[in-house]
Amino acid sequence: MKAIIPVAGIGTRLRPHTHTQPKALIPIAGKPILAHIIDSLIKAGINEYVFVIGYMGDKIENYISSHYPKIKAEYVIQTTGRGTGYAIYLAKEQIKDAGEILIVLGDSIVDVDLDTVLKSDVSMLGVKKVDDPRLFGVAELDDDGIIKRLVEKPSIPKSNLALVGLYKINESEKLIDALEYIINNKVTSQNEYQLTDALMRMVQQGIKFKTFDVYNWFDCGKKEILLETNSTLLKRLNYDTLKYKFENTIIIAPVFIGENCKISNSIIGPNVSIGENATLNYAIIKDSIIGPYAQIEYAILESSIIGNDAMYKGMKQSLNIGDSTEINFG
């Protein structure tokens, strides 16, 4: 089975971090978003991949070749952002004879029993109940639990089952036909060719789709969700913080600290991920992500994302304060 992973998005909601790297390579809990996705797929036995790349796609290729040299990786270039459906359609030559395929959006991390999904004899779409379905593709089910309708970001939702970006498709040729149909007939939603609309075309043709629930779903498109995902994954991965030995520094689990970091006179944690070769001195950091090679000194940071090679130096004060004095830097 092949996995198709679209990673061509610009990631506007995560600027300024996506000015210099693809969204899929932003680190959380010790490794990039894309690595969390690939590791779960490799564990399920998937070894063939098609990556749809665009914005800074060379960085995606370099990362895959250096960190996953044993997988079979193919790359398709998307030059214009015309929707997820269009991105998948660009990979038609790579998937036309694949039969069963797995589509995984490159900015979503999900917890799911992937083995059961892959063994299904019908196509399956991952879903999770959400408070505001208008922000997502939505699945409507009949009385037997079969999908009867799929709508992209409905203005008046008739279901709260949001599509989470994980699709197991048994009929890859039918999917290509459906994508070709919506593109040729300019069937768009939000002015883009959506995978949801192509799947609805397949439903109309009588192809059976079922849903599967995911335990957790992290749509890593915003700072707040990135930090929440970082916290959740750090707790689950349970890195050994006892191995971290730094001068005059307190580590409060869960924490991940990359190789060759220089940390002194600091309090790190909880829920902090620090990339390799970072330097921290006189810093108090919690609920944050610090990128590789970052330099932080005299700082108190909470709920922050500090990019690769960034430098932040706060104020250092030496005070001699007399009786009945109040100083407020806020």
Quickly give the CATH architecture of the largest domain. Answer: Alpha-Beta Complex
Number of strands: 23
Strand order of the largest sheet: 5-4-1-6-11-8-12
CATH third-level topology of the largest domain: Spore Coat Polysaccharide Biosynthesis Protein SpsA, Chain A
- Given helix and strand content, the structural type is alpha/beta
The CA-CA distance between the termini, in Å, is: 57 Å
Helix content: 10-25%
Overall pLDDT: 89
Main sheet summary: 7 strands, mixed
Q: How many separate domains? A: 2
| Discrete helix count | 8
Quick one: CATH class of the largest domain? Alpha Beta
The radius of gyration computed from the alpha-carbon positions, rounded to a whole number of angstroms, is 23 Å
Full CATH superfamily name of the largest domain = Spore Coat Polysaccharide Biosynthesis Protein SpsA, Chain A
Shape: elongated
**Low-pLDDT regions:** none
How much of the residues is beta strand, in percent?
25-35%
